[in-house]
Write the structure tokens for this entry.
Amino acid sequence: GISLQIHESNGDSGNEEDAVNSDSMGKIDSALRVLIKLIRTGKVSARDHLAGGVMRSILLASQQIIDAADDVSPTPSSSTDESPSALTIIDSILCNSSDDIPEAILVTMLHHVLCYATVGDVVTFFSSPRQQRRQYLAPQK
């Protein structure tokens, strides 16, 4: 299974604790990028690997990465590397799942989109190079 531990700061942290928190966020970011790649190759099963609350933890961790990045730099990065956003993870699962997706996972994804996704998250997701290469049914204005 997948286990994520998030530690909150009590406000009187020093540079060493900030470095540890930054390193932890970097590791979570890397883990989410690997997870997205595994989902896209079909090696991760929604039913076998993401059930039992794992999906919720993954989406919340991805949201923390985005929030932490916004705290450091509120402007989007010019990097061509796709960020491990919750919408990217959801899209990867819906497009690449090698098996059926359990209802509980679909409800978790819908809940996350309705309760946590911001207009900026949606704009960033659909502005990504990967999404720009896709053909959508909605006409361009």
In short: The chain has a mean pLDDT of 77. Helices lie at 15-41, 46-49, 54-72, 86-96, 103-116, 119-127, 129-132. The two ends are 44 Å apart (CA to CA).
